[in-house]
Amino acid sequence: MNTNEQTYLCYHRRHLLGIEGLTPEEITILLNRSETHVQQNRQANKKKSVLNGRTIINLFFEDSTRTRTSFELAGKRLGGDVINMSVSTSSVKKGETLIDTAMTLNAMHPDVLVVRHPQSGAVSLLSEKVNCAVINGGDGAHEHPTQALLDALTIRRRLGHLSGLVIAICGDVLHSRVARSNIHLLNTMGARVRLIAPVTLIPSGIEHLGVEVFHNMDEGLKDVDIVMMLRLQRERMQGNFFPSIREYFNFFGLDEAKLANAKDNALIMHPGPMNRGVEIDSDLADDFGRSVIREQVEMGVAVRMACLEILTENLDQSEGSNL
Ligand code: NCD
Known about the structure:
Elements: H1 3-8, H2 24-41, E1 55-60, H3 66-77, E2 81-86, H4 98-106, E3 112-117, H5 122-127, E4 133-139, H6 145-159, E5 166-170, H7 177-188, E6 192-196, E7 212-214, H8 217-220, E8 226-229, H9 245-252, H10 256-259, E9 267-269, H11 282-285, H12 293-321
Parallel strand pairs: 1-2, 1-3, 3-4, 5-6, 5-8, 6-7, 8-9
Helix pairs in contact: 2-6, 2-12, 3-12, 6-7, 6-12
N-carbamoyl-L-aspartate (NCD) binds next to helix 3 and helix 7.
């Protein structure tokens, strides 16, 4: 392999702000590196030292359980110092702006900032104001890149590849950054994406992203390899998007009858947190032959370790070049 090819097969960006625009090679590099952490995470001694001396700040302007916890675990397992800041305990409550908060944290010389924010684009804006690497932990309805990577790793480990698969993403697509990041990743890796939702929960013009849109679960799920369910994000809804929860479950909730349209060995996914009995039947969610929801959580730690590791390696290189 010549030097040019080696450079090409790197993730050489300073930040991870979204999946849109990443090349198949960059995505593959991130997935391959994640894979190297899976076994280690299953051992009694999970600790490495590659982030010794590095500081990671989790800056969360929105609630989170699994994303924040898995970034914290990922940073600690790699030997870094991890600080969690949530808005309820920060000066943002006292009126500080996003940028002032970022500049204040930046002055403490963190190496990586992991940021979740309710506004689309906020994380990218913040990344322009700081010296460290920034990872988008979810911005509004825009992107959630590490979720798409962990979903892809889960699929790749189960089915061996992404290319050629047919994946149905079902439910509240309108409010879902998980859906957007997954659409970009799956399309880039040669899979085919179908979206299934009521008309009110599909963003207008989404077909331009190269997806097929269905409003009927039986039609949309026909022969798919993967059924990815989304949470109804009621905290982001202003107004009524469907008549009632019962009616929503009847038409768009995943149950045995609707799942029967998919391939026999189709996998069930959900990014969590789940609303049992709203978007997914509780027994199906716990059917561990078909549901890979727990594996998704497990892969989340490995993916976040890979992202932290690669971005700090890139910092090492740029720090080195400044000498
Ligand atoms: C998702 C999110 O926050 O966008 N959750 C997560 O990160 N695991 C999806 C959701 O909240 O429904």
